[in-house]
Amino acid sequence: MKNNIYINNIMENKYDTTCPLFKLKILGNTSVICKHIGYYDTNEKLEDGILEIEGNKQIVKFKTFGKYDLLLKGHICHIPGSYLLKNKKLPIYYITIMYCSQFVVGHLYSVFLYFNIDEETCLTLKTPKNYVNKRMTGNFTIELITDDIKNDDEYIFDKKKKEIENNVMNKYLEQFNKCEKNEEREELMNNINKEIDNVFLQCKKMFEPIVIQDESMTRNKIIGKMKHILTNDEFNSMIRILLNKREEDRIKEYNMEMEHDIPTNTVNIMDLNDDEKINKHVESLIFEDD
User: Fold this and answer.
1) Environment class of residue 39 by beta-carbon count within 10 Å: exposed (0-12), middle (13-18) or buried (19+)?
2) Nearest Cα to 35, choosing from 136, 165, 175, 112?
3) pTM here?
4) Angstrom distance (rounded) from CA 192 to CA 186
5) For the chain, which residues make up each domain, given as ranges?
6) Helix axes 149-178, 182-205, angle to 10 degrees
7) What spatial distance separates the first Cα and last Cα of the chain, rounded to whole Å?
8) Rg of the chain on CA atoms, in Å
């Protein structure tokens, strides 16, 4: 009873820098229980829990992509009380797709598992203490999101649309050149535009919520479904596009130049041990552009 009163007081902001933490435990294919797991100082960074996504590993290698290794890192979401009170869509797990090389590490995408509280349950959540050990009903969704939703999504869709347009146009180029009448060309262009729109729509659907309706909701099965999104044929293209953006952002941030002169071979003058060798080397430097 004391614990519930304390939680209630904190969630009503009677303690300025302390907030209770919760996590959702899956009970079945339509329900979760909301568990209180402790408190955290809002002046400090909130740390999520460890989600083992392969055996007992939180981090596993996904694939090699160009000069980068792509890694997957699993997390169990710790939900602040303030977030819990304001949202009907609550995170349970997420898997982050990271890229790394010898000197660079960063994030690309995350795959989230959400629980969406239904209206019937919402009507019973009238006070903060109603959430503690509350069995909630609703549905589960999996969603692919970028780190910077506004800027990353706009960039990805812009680049992807141009890429699709080029691919489809190249596919029909020979057929287009064989068209003798304007009517034939117009009809073909209409078909080309429809195909571009359909392919682009399929790409955008990758970022739409996927509702899970399985009878079995074991952790391993859920993780398998979250990782399955990353096997989509178009996902490699999405990775390449966002990696390019990350590189462009680094160049702007650190004022790096995209192009560099190719280094030329040099000779240490101390390695030339007689006058004849020195004279030949100096001559080659003087006349190298002739």
Assistant:
1) middle
2) 136
3) 0.77
4) 10
5) 2-147+209-254
6) 150
7) 92
8) 28
One-letter amino acid identity for 256?
A: M
Look up residue 59 and give its amino acid: I
Structure tokens that stand for 142 in this block: 């999996």
CA distance 249 to 148: 12
Q: Answer for the pair 59, 87: CB distance below 8 angstroms, yes or no.
A: no
Cα angle value 71/207/68 (rounded, 5°): 25
- Residue 11 burial by CB count (10 A; 0-12/13-18/19+): exposed, middle or buried? buried
Identify residue 11 by its one-letter amino acid code. Answer: M
Distance of CA 103 to the CA centre of its chain: 20
3-state secondary structure of 80: strand
Per-residue pLDDT of the chain (290 residues; tens, 9 = 90+): 444 444 444 444 445 678 899 999 999 899 999 999 999 888 888 999 999 999 999 999 999 998 999 999 999 999 999 899 999 999 999 999 999 998 899 999 999 999 999 999 999 998 888 999 999 999 999 999 987 777 888 889 899 999 999 999 899 888 888 888 888 888 999 999 999 999 999 888 889 999 998 778 889 999 999 999 898 878 888 999 999 999 888 888 777 554 444 444 444 444 444 555 545 544 554 444 44
